[in-house]
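Private note to self, pasted from the team thread so I don't lose it. Backbone tokens:
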């Protein structure tokens, strides 16, 4: 089998893509897999680290504000399309898989134009513009939420859930091992804060404004800040003498250890983050990002909140109420236990394998 997987930009696109690639390799060890990403984006680092080849396109997104960068977009798109055409001709894939992100639009569009079979993987309850545009010509669309018939041809939709990282699906580390990995005391409560792979400014600002409350309440914090606020966070924790209570990380590579350590999680409501939380069954306070298409993170969060599987705090209110909500939850073991049970009802294990099932059907038919 020869497969091209295209997309990226954030961990929410990259980690499912790698999970699909690993599932293909698990079933077809001699498979040839090539990733196509966007130059300068995190997939150019994360994909090679996972052991796969990647080619970068000079594609970028449209800036919402008026900027000269937007003038270069048509030229970048044309160059990307020419590069994709050459990649497809040289690699001759059996299947082209789009996971969302800048690179997937020119790759999948050119693939269908040239007659290659394509699969889309839509992570969210509200699809992005790229997948809505590509859906008409895709062979199969793998989804993780109900109700997407509003956006995609119903006959092409297959419910697979979202692929998560294999180490998280396996979760063979203990709470004590996770706590030790981060230098925490396993006997004291641990909060994990993850604002996505690139960080979340409002969540970081919320934590910075209330760091002393973790020591006051004898609660430990494992804090993924992202790149942009990491240095400020480290300095703030050091100045306050909170190193024993607050463990700052720019990016957490061993998320299975972080989830194992955590008693309560603070998270954005991206589709992949939610899929992972459902698998590991952790009580969570969700703070949806307001900077996403059609406010889809709030829709993702409310699917859990309505079933007692999560608590939601709005982004605009998190600085004032978020920390108290977290502390109230961690002080209520009964509520935590019930929330863990409820969120696990949403778990969709083996999603990557289900997607490979669909890929195999297309390739065999071809």
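Design output:
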């Amino acid at each position: 089998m020869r497969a091209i997987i295209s997309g990226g930009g954030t961990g929410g696109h990259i980690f499912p893509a790698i999970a699909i690639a690993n599932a293909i390799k698990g079933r077809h060890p001699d498979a040839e897999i090539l990733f196509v990403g966007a130059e300068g984006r995190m997939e150019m680092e994360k994909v090679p680290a996972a052991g796969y080849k990647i080619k970068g396109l000079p594609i970028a997104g449209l800036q919402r504000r008026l900027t000269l960068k937007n003038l270069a977009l048509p030229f970048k798109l044309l160059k990307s399309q020419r590069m994709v055409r050459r990649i497809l001709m040289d690699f001759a894939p059996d299947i082209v898989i789009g996971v969302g992100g800048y690179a997937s639009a020119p790759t999948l569009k050119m693939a269908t134009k040239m007659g290659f079979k394509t699969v889309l993987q839509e992570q969210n309850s509200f699809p992005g513009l790229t997948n809505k545009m590509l859906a008409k010509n895709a062979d199969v669309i793998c989804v993780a939420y109900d109700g997407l018939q509003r956006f995609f041809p119903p006959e092409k939709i297959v419910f697979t859930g979202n692929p998560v990282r294999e180490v998280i699906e396996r979760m063979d580390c203990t709470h004590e091992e996770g706590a030790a990995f981060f230098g925490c005391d396993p006997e004291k409560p641990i909060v994990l804060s993850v604002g996505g792979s690139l960080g979340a400014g409002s969540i970081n600002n919320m934590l910075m404004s209330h760091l002393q409350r973790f020591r006051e309440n004898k609660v430990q914090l494992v804090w993924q800040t992202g790149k942009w606020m990491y240095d400020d966070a480290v300095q703030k924790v050091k100045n306050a003498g909170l190193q024993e209570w607050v463990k700052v990380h720019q990016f957490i590579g061993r998320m299975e250890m972080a989830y194992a350590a955590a008693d309560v999680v603070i998270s954005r409501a991206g589709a992949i983050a939610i899929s992972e939380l459902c698998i590991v069954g952790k009580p969570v306070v969700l703070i949806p990002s307001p900077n996403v298409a059609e406010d889809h993170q709030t829709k993702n969060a409310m699917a859990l909140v309505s079933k007692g599987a999560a608590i939601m705090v709005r982004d605009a209110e998190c600085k004032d109420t978020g920390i108290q909500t977290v502390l109230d939850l961690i002080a209520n073991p009964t509520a935590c236990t019930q929330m863990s049970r409820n969120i696990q009802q949403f778990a969709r294990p083996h999603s990557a394998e289900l997607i490979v099932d669909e890929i195999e059907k297309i390739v065999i038919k071809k």
